[in-house]
Design a protein that fits this description.
Elements: H1 9-24, H2 30-40, H3 45-61
Helix pairs in contact: 1-2, 2-3
Length: 64
């Protein structure tokens, strides 16, 4: 499966950071991690929406 990543170092770093945190603890709240990443990586509102949809879609794609 190919995933389209938006341009920008901050958003790529945010995805890597969130994914790492989810590997450590898969039960962590996606939205809390996204909110923290927005502040940590100075993510724009548009990119914050991307992160929310990216992880929402990923979560539903993994359900059999």
């Amino acid at each position: 499966m190919t995933t389209i990543m938006p341009e920008g170092e901050a958003i790529r770093n945010a995805v890597k950071w969130i994914s790492g945190k989810l590997q450590e603890d898969p039960n962590k709240s996606h939205q809390k991690l996204i909110n923290e990443a927005v502040l940590r990586f100075d993510i724009s509102p548009k990119d914050a929406e991307f992160l929310t949809e990216f992880y929402r879609k990923g979560k539903t794609d993994s359900i059999p």
